[in-house]
Amino acid sequence: MDGFTSFMDAALAEARAAALAGEVPVGAVVVREGVVIARARNRMRELVDPTAHAEMLAIREACRVLGSERLTGCDLWVSLEPCPACAGAIAAARLSRLYYAASDPKSGGVAQGPRVFDHPQAHWAPEIYSGIGEAEAAALLKDFFAARR
Amino acid sequence: MDGFTSFMDAALAEARAAALAGEVPVGAVVVREGVVIARARNRMRELVDPTAHAEMLAIREACRVLGSERLTGCDLWVSLEPCPACAGAIAAARLSRLYYAASDPKSGGVAQGPRVFDHPQAHWAPEIYSGIGEAEAAALLKDFFAARR
Q1: Where does the chain bind Zn(2+) (chains A, B) (predicted)?
Q2: What is the mean pLDDT of residues A89-102?
């Protein structure tokens, strides 16, 4: 398995763990020089924190690991298009690349809606790649919400 | 002093404390039924966390205090226009009202740039009031950056 597939697989594994914990299944990892330095899943319910999105937690953990407020040179792999809060956090952390799996027409903030990186106020924009692992990420979300109905 | 002024004063007091700690001077409080239930200042440097904005920390603290992921019925008072990350957090937390002092043409995400609440993807938008305490909030920021040059 090449790195390209395995980093999104690591994010998807976090998403599956989120579903098992009763959280909306989204997972994320931060990669630096080919190594996963932080991984996280949605924990909003567990932590009673509406900001405890996978991306937000992974970014914070990566900053802790590196002892730096800046993640320049690092990549974020996440199973769902980030919302505006997480897109803003990606900019604040100066992540170099964003890879996301499924699009989020409902709450996405990158390729739709506020398009957080597409304004002069975006002092930072990562390179963006989408669609890797999209089918599995979307199926996880669909199954999760179907089971709750 | 009426409540209207004193809640922004509480946010400005947090902003002044941030400046003393060497952080960009922004402060925020969350108010529920006329009572301040959480207060915070920027702590990005102290916590080595690019997401440790005043609003983000105040929202998290308010959720802890109430034991709820939702802050419906609560107000956020903040000395600067929220960035996209904090605007997203405000939506995620379902805050009912947002009061901010100074506009942020450089990084703001509410009245300019991504205008996070002005899209179909914004599943929640608070009532928004701006300009209260603007002069003091702007002066704090200006003095802070002038002293660092």
Answers
A1: 53, 83, 86
A2: 98
CB atoms within 10 A of CB A66: 17
Q: In terms of Cα–Cα distance, which of A4, A116, A2, A113 is closest to A55?
A: A116
Check B63 against A86: CB less than 8 A apart.
no
Which three-class secondary structure state does DSSP give residue B55?
Answer: helix
Positions of A annotated as catalytic residues are 55
The ipTM assigned to this model is 0.94
- Output the known binding site of B: 53, 83, 86
B69 contacts in chain A (CB < 8 Å): 44-45, 48-50
Whether residues B84 and A83 touch (CB distance < 8 A) is answered with no
Contacts of B113 in chain A (CB under 8 A): 119-122
Interface test with A, best of B83, B86, B117, B123 (most A CBs within 10 A): B83
pLDDT of residue B105: 93
**pLDDT average, residue stretch A14-39:** 97
**Mean per-residue pLDDT over chain A, rounded:** 95
Give average pLDDT by consecutive 10-residue segment, chain B, 149 residues.
Answer: 76 98 98 97 98 98 98 98 98 98 96 95 93 96 93
Beta partners for residue B129, in sequence order = B99
A50 Cβ contact list (under 8 Å, min separation 6): A44, B59, B63, B69, B70, B71, B89, B92, B93, B94
Residue B127 annotated as catalytic = no
Q: Do A112 and B92 touch (CB under 8 A)?
A: no
The structure tokens 């925020």 sit at: B28
